[in-house]
Write a structure and sequence with these properties.
Largest sheet: 6 strands, antiparallel
Radius of gyration: 28 Å
Keywords: Membrane, Transmembrane, Transmembrane helix
Order of helices and strands: EHHEEEEEEHHHHHEHHEEEHEE
Number of helices: 10
Helix content: 40-55%
Strand order of the largest sheet: 8-13-12-9-10-11
Amino acid sequence: MKTYKLSLALQITVTVICALATAGAAYGIGEFLQRDPVSTPGILFMAAVMLACVIAMIYIFSIRLTVSEDSIHDKSLFTDRTLSFSDIKGYTTSTHRSSTTLELVPEDPSLRSISISSGLNGYHEIVAWATARYPDLDMLARKAALENPALGASREEVEARLKRAQKLCGAMTVTAVGLIIASLFDDLWEYALVLAMILPLGATVLAHFHKGFISLEMGKSIPFPSIYYAVIVCAGLLAFCALKMHIVSHAGVWTPMIVTAVAIGGLLLWGVGKTDLISVLLAISVALPYGYGTAMFANILGDQGEVEEYSVTVLDKWFVKGKSKTYYLRLDAWGPKPAGEEEMVPRRLYNAVEKGSSVQVTLHSGYLNIPWYTISELHFTPPVIK
């Protein structure tokens, strides 16, 4: 019998982090208690942080993995599982950043698998034991998928088509990342967003013409390249940029968003030729941000209507500092908007105006009848619409 624990270095690291976080939370509680009135939500939040840190420290010291003559036992604050050696079907491995996890999978689906982290002292010894005794389930699944007779007449033909599909998916992913970079430039962002709307449509067509060789799913057990990386990057880019746009109300957004989301989700599933639960969930994760972003930018890019210009007084300005600074203006009433509305603006505009000065608000009707507006430095002379 042999027992394994988390490595000492990991235990010390987690303990130091939790101790510092607990000290910071305790200081925060003291600050909130001194406020008038006392900030109850702040105190509760800091207390929750302290409790989470205590639980984390108890958890890391409670982890034990015991290998006996005929079984393996995983015990911690939250788990207590035992698998006999004869119950184990095989193993899978997964990697997240610098951490690797070995999972022992039982033959009986009613039994819970045992996950073993690379942070465990003696992890490589356990991996050597598992690989010598049990099959790699990821490799077995990959082999079975590639030997599917529906994919081609021979293994050579399957491998050739697989390489072509891998190159196409790789090219689409690189293109999607390139669109993120292009969107950072004033002269290119519009083209980047149009291409971000088009690329997922092209990906579904390519997946359809390479049906069986391109997937939405990812993982070691999936031998086929995935278009998910490319389409989720495009969807995320569209949604992220759309969130920075100014619209009067979201009421008109939901219908075109849902229609677009249903369309792109259905196209993705049609393209890969699969409707299993995982594929459906992945398609939804792409469809929702894509639908929102596409509806917003179709409304803006197709807008050729007349505009209304307003000279609006800046009531206040401030910024919020996190990983990056976010700049805000509080504006006086204009058109359909009441006084006191907070607006996120670029740093250049924030630096160009002061409290009490004016900015120009340009109101557009929207191609999809979703009124939207821009905020810029004042560059026209009243009379002003109010």
